[in-house]
Design brief:
- The protein has helices at residues 3-59, 64-75, 83-97.
- By secondary structure, it is mainly alpha-helical.
- The longest helix has 57 residues, at 3-59.
- The radius of gyration is 27 Å and the shape is elongated.
- The chain starts with a helix and ends with a helix.
């Protein structure tokens, strides 16, 4: 093999690599867009559900302590750090006290 043919092979391999990297980049971008769309959809649903819950709670008040106890009972076994439990309690306080 001559030096030129080796250089041609290297150039072809580099071109293939470049195409593969562009393809991976496009795929990653599409997946990121899909994830961002899904997150936006979830946020939209959560906002709608929050509005519904606030209206229901305004018409049918609940005992905040009972809600907090329910959260403790149903999350302590699953939430070893307590972070999720505290976030849930914070949201519960916000929703229950929203109209206060």
């Amino acid at each position: 093999m001559t030096t030129d043919s080796l250089l041609d092979q290297v150039q072809k391999m580099l071109n293939n690599l470049s195409q593969d990297i562009h393809s991976m980049s496009d795929t990653t971008r599409r997946h990121s867009e899909m994830v961002m769309t899904a997150i936006d959809d979830i946020a939209t649903h959560m906002l709608a559900m929050q509005a519904i819950v606030v209206v229901i709670l305004k018409q049918n008040p609940v005992d905040l302590n009972g809600v907090l106890e329910w959260i403790d009972t149903h999350t302590n076994a699953l939430d070893k750090t307590g972070q999720g439990t505290e976030k849930a309690k914070t949201l519960a306080r916000y929703l229950v006290n929203y109209n206060s």
